[in-house]
Amino acid sequence: MNCPREDLLSNADIRATPRTPPTMFIVNPGVHVIDLLGSVSESLASASVITLDVADRETGTSRNSLLGIAQLVMLAEISVNRALDQLDPHAPQ
Q1: Is the CB of residue 58 less than 8 Å from the CB of residue 84?
Q2: Among 90, 71, 76, 16, which residue's Cα sits nearest to residue 44?
Q3: Disulfide engineering: 63 pairs with which of 53, 58, 74, 81, CB 3.0-4.6 Å?
Q4: What is the DSSP string of 1-68?
Q5: What is the pLDDT of residues 41-72, one digit of tens each?
Q6: What pTM does this model have?
């Protein structure tokens, strides 16, 4: 027979507990979305270069997997850059 454990919090107790968001990896809520997207674009460009560099040292299925990851990163970078173009069409290219 299942007996409820007294040491477990109820759903109501959990919802009543104030939520404290972790601060280790917090993004400043005042940062403009264009700046955030610009940072993401640079990070994706770096990830692409790193992945292609490692892929050049591999052979076979490992190389193919890394090239596939590099392509996914590139597609994400293109999407972010497209969003930047729509948000700030007059920015220098």
Answers
A1: no
A2: 76
A3: 58
A4: -----TTSPPHHHHHHSPP----TTPPPTTS-HHHHHHHHHHHHHHHHHHHHHHHTT--HHHHHHHHH
A5: 999 999 999 999 999 999 999 999 999 999 99
A6: 0.67
**Domain map of the chain by residue range?**
26-87
The continuous run of DSSP H or E covering 75 comes out as helix 60-87
Closest by alpha carbon to 72, among 43, 38, 48, 40? Answer: 48
- The Cβ of residue 80 has, within 10 Å, a number of other Cβ atoms equal to 20
Q: How far is CA 75 from the centre of its chain?
A: 14
Other C-beta atoms lying within 10 Å of the C-beta of residue 38: 16
Q: Does residue 48 contact residue 73 with C-beta atoms inside 8 Å?
A: yes
